[in-house]
Amino acid sequence: MMGPASSLIRSGNPQGAKPCERFLLSPTAWGQLPAALQQETELALLGLWADAAQVHACFLHEPSAEAVLASTPAAGWNYAALSPARPGAVRFERMILELWGHHAEGAVDLRPWLDHGRWNLRHPLAAKPIPFAGEAPQPEFLPVEGEGIHQIPVGPIHAGVIEPGHFRFSVQGEVVVRLEQRLGYTHKGALSLMLGTSPRAAVRYAARLSGDTTVAHSWAFSAAVEAALGVTPPPRALHLRALMLELERIHNHLNDWGFVCNDAAFAFPHARCGFLREGVLRAIAAAFGHRLMMDRVLPGGVAPDIAPRGAEAILAALDAVEAEIPSLMQIYEAHASLQDRVVTTGYLRPDLACAFAAGGHVGRASGRGFDARRLPQSQPYPTLRFDVPVLEAGDVDARVRIRVLELGQSIALVRQILASLPSGELMAPLPVRAGEGVAMIEGFRGECLHWISLDDGGLIRALFPRDPSWLQWPLLEAAIEDNIVADFQLCNKSFNCSYSGVDL
Amino acid sequence: MLWPKLARALFAKPLTDNAPLVPRETIQALGERLAATSRARLGRSLAIREVDSGSCNGCELEVNALQNVAYDLERFGLRFVASPKHADVLLVTGPACLNMREALERALASTPEPRWVVAAGDCAVDGGVFKGSYAVENGIAAVLPVDLLIPGCPPTPAQLLEGLLSLLETESAKK
User: Fold this and answer.
1) In the CATH hierarchy, which fold is given to the domain comprising A191-468?
2) Is residue B39 over pLDDT 50?
3) What residue ranges of chain A have pLDDT lower than 70?
4) ipTM for the predicted complex
5) CA distance B136 to chain A (A)
6) Which end of chain A has fewer CB within 10 Å, C or N?
7) Which of A429, A74, A87 is nearest to A229 (CA)?
């Protein structure tokens, strides 16, 4: 049965996006959307973005896992805000105002986000950007009231080897009353460089949206292009993509498991995870010629093929990982000093995880089990056997446990893929024509959602790559509340959101 | 059980790789550049502050890998520190994002002399694929005085190590 928001969206004019339809709504119909969304809570907002003329939203009907897109013309640069009905829309609306100049009427928050007043233009993706030459304004933070509250500003340069961003803690004694993030420091203008180029040229930007998710983003971008053009990559290419995607998940999960322990000053698992991960990365380099597998997934397929001895190297490295997981887990569980730091720390309420449609380990540690690999169009996953672990505890420990459980699943998936690797071509030719496509690929953080619209010359007319971190960063602000400042690193590392992925 | 683990650790081969050889050309080129300045010798020890000026985090993954037991950076006297105030080297990754310009300038101002700036990764070298964007000033050299370039997208830990060791070698060769 369709809820009021779904019916409202489907009453719009279909625009021919593949494989999920995009419906164009009149500004009046879009204006009714926030109220309809409030009545249909199972329709999750996955992303909100724009092009020079329209604003686009992607929704997921949670029970059926069906996605649908809705758009509205930004008439007179205005459109009705969705943030009163979907809290995840807030940061998207701030970004849309800065990058395209469309104003969300009735928005919860429209303070600057990516634009720190340091570029020499405003609205860089609008039809006509406005030149800008002025002082960068001081950032405004939300007020916090109460006795004895003080602020701790952190960043943009952090103490560890991590990406830049600013965290503003309002603290009472040792307890965090509010955390507010200010990101945008790594804004590189990637979208402006991708527009007007061919998908083959633009995929290198998708590969560098977030380096740790290079395979997932390259695949999601390529899959959106392939959907737009009606191209199916050869079976061998799809299997190799899945192989690389699981290897990416394995090396990142190992990394973060080690770092969470390290942030609780427990160095041994960090050292072991780092060494096992190094073995995986070296095997990946032997198999694919690049330690992080950058630029291996291309629209149409993959290049180059796996090296002749690559499969053996990968299997050997994964055997070593698998052999050590039980003893590492036993050490993780047996040390009270470590358990004391991770259990009940950074609790994320399941209702919040659902309200923001949090994907990946953040959602799955708080009861939301969506995994894009379960979608019927996610070839080759429907032919493979794997479980999607889901826990309810919602704390740092649960997010770590999801990672460790997924490690085991991914290792089993790699073995299945290598055992059933089809032979044949690696690339399908791409026709030059117009089209519109959308795709979701499950990276290690959650689903990477890419939407692309190509013009008759096959060049990119509009696009948006949505990293899963968009919907996870705001939840970190919620998870840290009432925890002590010293536990922030643990909470942060257990989320491990991407800065570059949301800074664009 | 602790004892079997200890025994294994005592008799097993070390996990750490052998040190890489640093190409002579790199040392010579650096030596000439550094000889032109009057920088004091720091001995065989450098404290490094990593600064991300807007990378995609690929470089951060490899800089972090440099600290794992396979590379064991600290055996060379190289270590990462938490503040530019404790650093001899600023290791900068990513293109010079305009939103990071002030933070970079402040990091440099907080780093005591003598100091080196190393631009690591293709983005830091010349902006990489992000060259020409409205939001970046291409390479790090647009904001900071760069002493050493380590190209690569991202540079591997071995390449990073080679670059950092060349700084040490150059310094001890000047004696």
Assistant:
1) Cytochrome-c3 Hydrogenase; chain B (1.10.645)
2) no
3) 1
4) 0.93
5) 6
6) N
7) A429
Q: What is the mean pLDDT of residues B20-24?
A: 69
Which residue of chain B has the CA closest to A273?
Answer: B68
Chain A CA closest to residue B61: A212
**CB spacing of B80 vs A161 below 8 angstroms:** yes
**Which domains occur in chain B, in start order?**
42-173 (3.40.50.12280)
Superfamily of domain A4-131: NADH:ubiquinone oxidoreductase Nqo5 subunit (3.30.460.80)
Of B51, B62, B64, the CB nearest to A157: B51
A164/B98 CB distance under 8 A: no
Nearest CA in chain B to A501: B56
Residue B36 has pLDDT above 70, yes or no: no
Supply φ then ψ for residue B8, to 5 degrees: -60, -45
Residues of A in contact with B128 (CB under 8 A): 208
**Please, what is the average pLDDT of chain B?**
85
Q: Give the tens place of pLDDT for each residue, B69-108.
A: 998 888 888 889 999 999 999 999 999 999 999 999 999 9
Query: Which amino acid belongs to residue A325?
Result: I
Q: Over the range A425-452, which residues count as b (16 or more CB within 10 Å of their CB) and which as e? A: ebebebeeeebbbbbbbbbbbbbbbbbb
Tell me what pLDDT residue B17 has: 84
Contact B57 A255 (CB under 8 A): no
Q: How would DSSP label each residue in B74-119?
A: GGGTEEE-SSGGG-SEEEEES--BGGGHHHHHHHHHHSPSS-EEEE
Please check whether residue B19 touches A, CB under 8 A: no
Band of the pLDDT at B34, cuts 50, 70, 90?
low
pLDDT at A135: 86
Mutate to test the interface with B, among A188, A282, A327 (most CBs of B within 10 A): A188
pLDDT at B163: 87
Interface of A with B in 248-267 (CB under 8 A): 255
What global pTM score does this model have?
A: 0.93
> What tokens appear for A69 in the block?
């897109």
- Tally A–B CB contacts below 8 A: 140
Residue whose pair of structure tokens reads 């701790």 in the numeric block: A152
> Quick one: DSSP state of residue B17?
P
In sequence order, what are the residues at sequence separation of 6 or more whose Cβ sits closer than 8 angstroms to the Cβ of residue B173?
Answer: B27, B31
Domain residue spans of chain A: 4-131, 191-468
Quick: pLDDT tens for A242-295: 999 999 999 999 999 999 999 998 999 999 999 999 999 999 999 999 999 999
User: Going by C-beta distance under 8 Å and a sequence separation of 6 or more, which residues neighbour residue A107?
Assistant: A81, A83, A90, A93
**pLDDT interval class at B37 (50, 70, 90):** very low
B90 phi, psi to nearest 5 deg: -100, 115
Q: Do A498 and B57 touch (CB under 8 A)?
A: yes
